[in-house]
């Protein structure tokens, strides 16, 4: 049973560029959340997708957007990259019917470096 | 969500029990205590959660004080692979989809050989 998979594992971009990160949730999961983790800090919630709609959003600017596909996979898009966007981006999946446990399963992340 | 306070770092000898404390003095009656850990270069991993009773699973035990203002995660026989950052998170059960997790800085546990 494959867990949460993210691609690519590493990415280097320059300021002002746009980037797309991808996530495939754990089998049977229908909800995907994205987190940003700066070096030495805990992950910070960006947003969550369920039924192809953004359901919750953290304190991140509109440059951060996302999408969820019918197969539950998800993308995180970041426009007009800033140096401060350099971080580990984590995807987490969960199952709506299991929401009472509030347990999320994380991928290994995508390391984004903005130069 | 209630705020949590954890020591920034702890050491533990391999084979001994690791006891990781967490203070959550402002916890509400409907909020659960969750523990996740993050091994270097990996995503966070769920360990255990509880409301007021002590909980145990194959990974760890969770001891919550009677007033629920603090808790302790216990790894009964720590191994080198338990070296990680441990996060204590307080969260109410979600209505609808799973709610966001609010991570603090966590405790860096280093298991020494």
- Estimated share of beta-strand residues of chain A: over 45%
What is the CA–CA distance across the termini of chain B?
Answer: 37 Å
Radius of gyration of chain B from CA coordinates = 13 Å
Percentage of residues assigned to helices of chain B: under 10%
Order of helices and strands of chain A: EEEEEEEEEEE
The most extensive contact between chains is: A-B, 31 and 25 residues
Order of helices and strands of chain B: EEEEEEEEE
Strand portion of chain B: over 45%
Distance between the termini of chain A: 37 Å
Strand order of the largest sheet of chain B: 1-9-8-3-4
Helical stretch count of chain A?
0
Mean residue pLDDT of chain A: 93
The tally of strands of chain A reads 11
Overall residue-averaged pLDDT value of chain B: 92
Major beta sheet of chain A, specifics? 7 strands, mixed
Multimer state: heterodimer
Regions of chain A with pLDDT < 50 over 5+ consecutive residues?
none
Number of DSSP strand runs of chain B: 9
Contiguous runs where pLDDT drops below 50 for at least 5 residues of chain B: none
Structural account:
- The complex is a heterodimer of chains A (115) and B (113).
- With 115 residues, chain A is mainly β.
- Helices cover 0% and strands 50% of the residues of chain A.
- In chain A, the strands form two sheets. In chain A, strands 2, 4, 5, 6, 9, 10 and 11 form a seven-stranded mixed β-sheet that branches.
- Chain A is globular and about 40 Å long.
- In chain A, 36% of the residues are buried.
- With 113 residues, chain B is mainly β.
- Helices cover 0% and strands 46% of the residues of chain B.
- In chain B, the strands form two sheets. Chain B has a five-stranded mixed β-sheet with strand order 1-9-8-3-4, with no helix packed on it. In chain B, strands 2-7-6-5 form a four-stranded antiparallel β-sheet, with no helix packed on it.
- The termini of chain B are far apart.
- The mean pLDDT of chain B is 92.
- Classes of the chains: A mainly beta (115), B mainly beta (113).
């Amino acid at each position: 049973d494959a867990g949460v998979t993210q691609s690519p594992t590493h990415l280097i971009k320059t300021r002002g560029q746009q980037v797309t990160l991808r996530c495939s949730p754990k089998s049977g999961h229908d909800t995907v959340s994205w987190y940003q983790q700066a070096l030495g800090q805990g992950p910070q919630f960006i947003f969550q997708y369920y039924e192809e709609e953004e359901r919750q959003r953290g304190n991140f600017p509109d440059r951060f957007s996302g999408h969820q596909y019918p197969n539950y996979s998800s993308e995180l898009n970041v426009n007009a990259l800033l140096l401060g966007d350099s971080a580990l981006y984590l995807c987490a999946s969960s199952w709506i019917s299991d929401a009472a446990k509030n347990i999320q399963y994380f991928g290994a992340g995508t390391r984004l470096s903005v130069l | 969500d209630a705020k949590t306070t954890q020591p920034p770092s702890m050491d533990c000898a391999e084979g001994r029990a690791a006891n990781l404390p967490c203070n959550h003095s402002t916890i509400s009656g409907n909020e659960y205590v969750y523990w996740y850990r993050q091994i270097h270069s990996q995503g966070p991993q769920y360990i255990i959660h509880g409301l007021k009773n002590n909980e145990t699973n194959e990974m760890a035990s969770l001891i919550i004080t009677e007033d629920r203002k603090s808790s302790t995660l216990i790894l009964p026989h720590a191994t080198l692979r338990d070296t990680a950052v441990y996060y204590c998170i307080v969260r109410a059960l979600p209505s609808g989809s799973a709610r966001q997790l609010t991570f603090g800085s966590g405790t860096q546990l280093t298991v020494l050989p």
